Amino acid sequence: MSTLKDLLANINYNIKGRSPADLELAGLCLDSRQAKQGWLFAALPGSQVDGHDYIEQALANGCSAVLCERWPQKIAAKVCYIKVEKVADALGPLAANFYEQPSQQLALVGVTGTNGKTSTVSLLYRLFKKLGHKVGLISTIENRIDDEVLKSTHTTPNAIELQALLAQMRDAACDYVFMEVSSHAAEQGRIAGAHFTGGVFSNISHDHLDYHKTFKNYIFAKKRFFDQLPSSAFALVNADDKRAEVMLQNCSAKAYRYAQKQLADFRFRLLENSLSGLQLELDGQEFHCSLVGDFNAYNLLAVYATAILLEEPKTEVLRILSSLKPPAGRFEYVRIPNNPVQAIVDYAHTPDALEKVLQTLKATTSTGRIITVVGCGGNRDNSKRPIMAQKAAAYSDLLILSSDNPRFEEPEAILDEMWAGLSKAQQAQTYRQVNRREAIRWACQLAQAEDVILVAGKGHETYQEIKGERLPFDDREELRQALEEQLAKFV
Ligand SMILES: CC(=O)N[C@H]1[C@@H](OP(=O)(O)OP(=O)(O)OC[C@H]2O[C@@H](n3ccc(=O)[nH]c3=O)[C@H](O)[C@@H]2O)O[C@H](CO)[C@@H](O)[C@@H]1O[C@H](C)C(=O)N[C@@H](C)C(=O)N[C@H](CCC(=O)O)C(=O)O
């Protein structure tokens, strides 16, 4: 077993208290409440709470080492204190050493971007499984160690959880791992110390400005991931997004571009986009699949290009891709027998994602109306609220503003901010109903035979987060029930 001194190789640090040379750690933690005998506690400063305030609690729980940015007032001789410039930057490499560099022993591909991360990694996971590999998945919806499904609490886990998960994947003989890289994760060093075989950038648009403050900071958080890619890796970017080139600036990885509109290494041409699927010319080959919307054509192209860069056979990749269904809660259809109304649940919770889904519906719905139910999450970026309402109103024939996950905010106050984005004329045609179940019921009651209902924002989620509680709630279940109730109208 390695000593703490070995684990600190390649990290700049100062020491007080016990020497790390003869200290073997039993575990690592970020939360003092989970600390155990012989563990190292990493005192991470957050934006609200500072881990340094919990050093004493971690020591009381038996920790024998502390990673920190400033010396605590009391230094205990039996504890090793390691001071680094930024805990967030040092923890990843330390955790990677502790778990014996799992990402060096498999091929890790990270996907970043405002929209499309979950769909892309989920498609990659399923494609590589069908190609016969053992595969790991780290995503917003779930984590998977090949066939074993684990709960996911974040888009990208913290540095310790990430390295522990990668180690489990390595021990289960996974050869590939596809993971989402959120901007929070890149900014907070959660991916530091991870060795990537490839990085993919899908797009960037307005989101998370509560955290990053400016759009520029948000772009540079994503860029941090590309800056981390080694020269042996590939850096694959969507060249149709105008920030793609920023990702590639000073990036040591080998650059590849995919696009519809630009000259690029990988391209698609949209032949047909209907509610029954996409017909594409993908990298020169005719291709059909049941995924809907040109945003999915981009996701498919990113997946295809990644597979080719990982040297998978082109014909087999295209054959499997054409059979894949959309991931849960992404443009997921809800239909019940005898009810002609089509309903779609989508996770779109950014202005850009919502606009893309609605554009697809507009382009593919010829006769009926589009009825949209949408809200915005509480305690998250409130600057997107008026824009999302505006986008929803622009493409919908009927709009019902409702609650998403209000968290600790007043649901009506969130709707007020959305409402402010609507013109007087749009307001006159928009309903407000904070109770999401009721809002979905209203949408179904208002729908006629040819209409399409879009319930946006929560996708795969099976809960609604209200005042610190996660109450069971599933848009797809609610829609099924409401469509059943409405059935009488058509029989
Ligand atoms: C809202 C937000 O951004 N919170 C971030 C912020 O947290 P914070 O200031 O409240 O502090 P904290 O994490 O509660 O506590 C700071 C430290 O003290 C420790 N602590 C705290 C209490 C205690 O009793 N003992 C103790 O040791 C904590 O374990 C932690 O290490 O600073 C922390 C340190 O940098 C972050 O880990 C934390 O992200 C949390 C985990 C979070 O949930 N963030 C979300 C927004 C997030 O990361 N989301 C992205 C996806 C976004 C998307 O694409 O939709 C994701 O990757 O999931």
Terminal residue distance:
71 Å
Total individual domains: 3
Please work out how many helical segments DSSP would assign: 17
β-strand amount: 15-25%
At the fold tier of CATH, the topology name of the largest domain is: UDP-N-acetylmuramoyl-L-alanine:D-glutamate ligase
CATH-assigned homologous superfamily of the largest domain: Mur-like, catalytic domain
Rounded to an integer in angstroms, the radius of gyration calculated over CA atoms is: 24 Å
Total beta strands = 24
Description:
The chain has 17 helices and 24 strands. The protein is globular. The strands form four sheets. An eleven-stranded mixed β-sheet has the order 9-8-7-10-6-11-12-13-14-15-16, sandwiched between helices. Strands 17-18-22-19-20-21 form a six-stranded mixed β-sheet, sandwiched between helices. α12 runs parallel beside α13. By secondary structure, it is α/β, with parallel strands linked by helices. β15 (277-282) and β16 form a beta hairpin. The chain has three domains: 4-94, MurE/MurF, N-terminal domain (Udp-n-acetylmuramoylalanyl-d-glutamate--2,6- Diaminopimelate Ligase, Chain: A, domain 1, 3-Layer(aba) Sandwich), CATH 3.40.1390; 102-321, Mur-like, catalytic domain (UDP-N-acetylmuramoyl-L-alanine:D-glutamate ligase); 332-489, Mur ligase, C-terminal domain (Protein-Tyrosine Phosphatase, Chain A, Alpha-Beta Complex).
